[in-house]
Amino acid sequence: MMDALIAAPLLLPAFAGTASLLFWLRYRWIGAIISIASMMGLIALAIVLMAQAASGGAIAYALGDWPAPFGIVLVLDRLSALMLLLTALLGFAVAVHAALTGLDRKGWHFHPLLQFQLLGINGAFLTGDLFNLFVFFEVLLIASYGLMLHGQGAQRLSAGIQYVIVNLLGSTLFLIALGLLYGVTGTLNMADMAVRAGALPEGDQGLLRAGGLLLAVVFALKAALLPLHLWLPRTYAATAPAVATLFAIMTKVGAYAIIRTMPLIFGDAAGTFLLPSALGTMLLGFFGLLAARGLADMAAFGLIGSTATLLTAIALFDGHAMAAALYYLPHTTLTAALLFLTVDLIIRWRGVEGGAIVPTPHYKGQGWLGFQFLAAAVALVGLPPLSGFVGKLLILQAAIPSAYMVAIWAFVLGTSLLGLIGLARAGSTLFWKEDANPAIAADRPAPRALEALPAAFLLILLAALTAGAGPATAYMEATSAQVFDATGYVRSVLGPEQGGAGR
Amino acid sequence: MSIEFLVASAIGVLTMAGIYLCLRGRTFPVVLGLVMLSYAINLFLFAIGRLIVNRPPLYEKDLVEYTDPLPQALVLTAIVISFGMTALAVVLALRNFLETGTDQVDGILEADPPRPDPKARS
Which segments cross the bilayer (chain B) (predicted)? Predict the structure, then answer.
């Protein structure tokens, strides 16, 4: 019975999305309530599942009770439980923010799309089957196309079509990789593939590596790594900032897929490509942040930079570095989300200037926004007292035994400085300089303090991650050990005798 | 000519055309390119279970040789998804053209842009 609960994070948003679709026009507030209630349910579910995952090894649930290598399994372990909780918390903040700011009334079907997006993301985190991972990627992408275009506008449309085309090409590459892997190993179940990949004859190893690297390329595209990052800034800057808040988890889906598949099936061979690429992306992201003229651009480049910091730690493929990366993962997601929500509030409360980084006359709520911006900036750059400091410290410490230690230290510290300069400059322009032009000052909308609640919620979560750094790192150490324990994973999916009798 | 050679070259030619069209600057050729690529992928997926002619796709005890049914199921899923995605891309491209007045992928007007007639929008 408890095992069947693993499927609940997929069923709940599916039903909630459909139910909120029923009230699409006249009773849209009912749809919003269903959506928010579903997010609360997802948070509760994620906490229960996390407690379950923390108490033992990975748990597999066979959908339709077909045994593992043949049917599709959902696998719950510490990593997927962590990602589920993070997604639910972020989804809750976005749903409440959209309902409070009226974003969900600017177009059709915001809440159903949001629910289906969560269905796709949760599915990608839970599935133990590579083709099923592809299907859930498509589900989350289809919903994200709708959300990205929500509210419309010419700029959003032309950025949207690029986003769609890039992701269609990504899906094509994904299918080629799946074809290669299936052709070589004869299975699509991740655990079964891990078993068979080890037993492949020498001649097929090359094809397996090619398939694995193609998969890595697809996941790097989702995570916006260096040569494949070009789609992200424009998409995230053109979309509504509250939607971009949710998209902060989408780059982490790529990171998650790398953590899940690479150590299990392909070993650490991808690290040699990932590490330089992640370092380059980090530099590019923070340079972009320094050069950005608009707030949304700045937040998008900040997201690229901090995701690259995360991927640098992942690319080391080592127990301690992975634990550091896993601690940094919720931090970077929450930080990027907080930054995007802050940007949205600044745009709304200033009223006139939009997202441009220019001085304005004093407006109501400026003090709170200044504090929020400061907190997001401190977290993004990695200054004490917020969790970014702990996370970057852990990453730097984990990099000491690596051969690339000097490069990693130089890049992480250097880009932190770049980010600090960029954010400090933007912040002082936005909040300290005053443009004494009373004509514009008169017709500003009165801000509603209620709208800042979701951002305050994220801020509290960040503070909690900092205050609970001890238990959190203990959890992450155990998670990291579980990620590298391929035999344990295989055993819990295929049964104790390692199953896999073959086709 | 063997069937392997025919299928392999068909996949190759389709992929080549798809990649070339995807690199074009206008949305219509890009969408066509995506269609070509998805055809190539469908063929490729079909062939990953090895090409076996005239054999049933189901396993029975006394059968020595049978075709792998799984790739066919995968192709079916891939066809459905790529069909839906292509439809979405076409609609988006159309909306983009009507709204920005250009069918350039990066949304920047060329010297001689094909402007849609505002009256013809409805």
Answer: 6-23, 30-53, 73-94
Residue that is written with structure tokens 């789609």 in the block: A231
Can you tell me the distance from the alpha carbon of A371 to that of A376, in angstroms, rounded to the nearest whole number? 9
In a domain, residue A501? The reply is no
- Spatial separation of the C-alpha atoms in residues A284 and A415, rounded to whole Å: 9
Residues A256-300: pLDDT tens digits? Answer: 999 999 888 887 777 788 899 999 999 999 999 999 888 999 999
Per-residue pLDDT, A495: 79
Determine, yes or no, domain membership for A461. yes
Angle between helical axes of A387-398 and A295-315 (0-180°, round to 10): 40
Domain ranges for chain B: 3-121
| Closest Cβ opposite residue B85 in set A161, A168, A176 | A168
Domain limits for position A140: 3-490
Hey, is A293 helix, strand or coil?
A: coil
**CB A157 to CB B100 under 8 A?**
yes
B37 to chain A, closest Cα gap in Å? 7
Query: Tokens 């070993």 appear where?
Result: A267
- Those residues of chain B that have pLDDT short of 70 are 107-122
Residue A498 lies in a domain: no
Q: Residue A388 has which token pair?
A: 């970014």
The CATH number of B3-121 is 1.10.287
